[in-house]
């Protein structure tokens, strides 16, 4: 599996799962554009880790939720790199709360970042990828988008939205050699899940047949397959990486 000469943009590549995806794609030969929105230090660490292993990476700051920002950033990336072969929609946030108490801005922020953010980026790469007649779009959704979760109506709606959007994009772009797939992680050990109270973690573990949280590398491995030539005939599909917690 080689990604030599490919250019990959990973949104939210500065930390957590996104960082592991950046490292994996770079280790396979891709030049990686590491996106972040607020933590420049984390993005720099990701790039340094890639370079330490002999890989190639640059940083691009943009807010996926801001369509003008995304448009400008992708224009610049195309001007600098000449092409974008791979887009990984990984940037995501949570603003949890029970629906009866959920503030409107908690709904809007999560939908704008997790769902509209992915749309903004897909829109920006779809024409160049169609022209190239080769492209790979992978969106990081969640087990919550398939199963739902009390306290995460906004997050579940955004992640379920990504599933429908991915299947539609897959149908639109298939004839041009561009695939659109997703990875649906279960509970992965990152900053997003580290602060969960112990009793919540205990309950989650009791529902996972493998009895442990996953790692960011587990997710990165599934992404690497979907962006490879080996996955040429796979589109509109979701790989569950969840230790058996949900078998959709
Ligand atoms: P982290 O909180 O560790 O990292 C989030 C990343 O998203 C950071 O790089 C952050 O950038 C970036 N980001 C957030 N908002 C924006 C924005 N508006 N524009 C650009 N970048 C942004 O999250 P995880 O690594 O845990 O999660 C990554 C993805 O995986 C998310 O989509 C999440 O929903 C999904 N997921 C995670 C699971 C888990 O258990 N951890 C389970 C299932 C799905 P910065 O560093 O600048 O803040």
Automatic annotation (TrEMBL):
<dbReference type="InterPro" id="IPR011284">
    <property type="entry name" value="3oxo_ACP_reduc"/>
</dbReference>
<protein>
    <recommendedName>
        <fullName>3-oxoacyl-[acyl-carrier-protein] reductase</fullName>
        <ecNumber>1.1.1.100</ecNumber>
    </recommendedName>
</protein>
<comment type="function">
    <text>Catalyzes the NADPH-dependent reduction of beta-ketoacyl-ACP substrates to beta-hydroxyacyl-ACP products, the first reductive step in the elongation cycle of fatty acid biosynthesis.</text>
</comment>
<feature type="binding site">
    <location>
        <begin position="155"/>
        <end position="159"/>
    </location>
    <ligand>
        <name>NADP(+)</name>
    </ligand>
</feature>
<comment type="pathway">
    <text>Lipid metabolism; fatty acid biosynthesis.</text>
</comment>
<comment type="similarity">
    <text>Belongs to the short-chain dehydrogenases/reductases (SDR) family.</text>
</comment>
<keyword id="KW-0560">Oxidoreductase</keyword>
<keyword id="KW-0443">Lipid metabolism</keyword>
<dbReference type="GO" id="GO:0030497">
    <property type="term" value="P:fatty acid elongation"/>
</dbReference>
<dbReference type="Pfam" id="PF13561">
    <property type="entry name" value="adh_short_C2"/>
</dbReference>
<comment type="subunit">
    <text>Homotetramer.</text>
</comment>
<feature type="domain" description="Ketoreductase">
    <location>
        <begin position="6"/>
        <end position="186"/>
    </location>
</feature>
<keyword id="KW-0444">Lipid biosynthesis</keyword>
<feature type="binding site">
    <location>
        <position position="90"/>
    </location>
    <ligand>
        <name>NADP(+)</name>
    </ligand>
</feature>
<keyword id="KW-0521">NADP</keyword>
<feature type="binding site">
    <location>
        <begin position="63"/>
        <end position="64"/>
    </location>
    <ligand>
        <name>NADP(+)</name>
    </ligand>
</feature>
<dbReference type="InterPro" id="IPR036291">
    <property type="entry name" value="NAD(P)-bd_dom_sf"/>
</dbReference>
<dbReference type="InterPro" id="IPR057326">
    <property type="entry name" value="KR_dom"/>
</dbReference>
<dbReference type="InterPro" id="IPR050259">
    <property type="entry name" value="SDR"/>
</dbReference>
<dbReference type="GO" id="GO:0004316">
    <property type="term" value="F:3-oxoacyl-[acyl-carrier-protein] reductase (NADPH) activity"/>
</dbReference>
<keyword id="KW-0276">Fatty acid metabolism</keyword>
<keyword id="KW-0275">Fatty acid biosynthesis</keyword>
<dbReference type="GO" id="GO:0051287">
    <property type="term" value="F:NAD binding"/>
</dbReference>
<dbReference type="InterPro" id="IPR020904">
    <property type="entry name" value="Sc_DH/Rdtase_CS"/>
</dbReference>
<dbReference type="InterPro" id="IPR002347">
    <property type="entry name" value="SDR_fam"/>
</dbReference>
<feature type="active site" description="Proton acceptor">
    <location>
        <position position="155"/>
    </location>
</feature>
<feature type="binding site">
    <location>
        <begin position="12"/>
        <end position="15"/>
    </location>
    <ligand>
        <name>NADP(+)</name>
    </ligand>
</feature>
<feature type="binding site">
    <location>
        <position position="188"/>
    </location>
    <ligand>
        <name>NADP(+)</name>
    </ligand>
</feature>
